[in-house]
Design brief:
Structural class: alpha+beta
Order of helices and strands: HEHHHEEEE
Helix content: 40-55%
Largest sheet: 3 strands, antiparallel
Shape: globular
Number of strands: 5
Strand order of the largest sheet: 1-4-5
Distance between the termini: 43 Å
Radius of gyration: 17 Å
Number of helices: 4
Strand content: 15-25%
Amino acid sequence: MRLVAVAGTLVFAAAAGLIGWVVLTGGECAGATVHRSVDACIAAGLPRERCASLLVEADRQLLQSGPVFDMREQCEDRYGSCQRAAGATGFVPRARGFCLKAGPPERLVPVFGR
């Protein structure tokens, strides 16, 4: 019984440490510019076509792996704008922007939430 308590405490501490690290370092977009719209992306110097396709790709990534809610209302209460999930029953948030992490290879990270 004592071993289970120690293991549970260690798992909890590791999870709290990981969450703290993500918050303190800026999450997956730390050090990268977050583009909240196609216009913001263009203002940063990227071509309109690339900015539009990156936002579409960010939405596609969320369809595949975003947080899934059973009801649209639950999702929209938390994230504002949601879409039907791909491959799962439920709804996921729409991308509210994206950042590009320097590579190689360069990596697109969807940004969602209010």
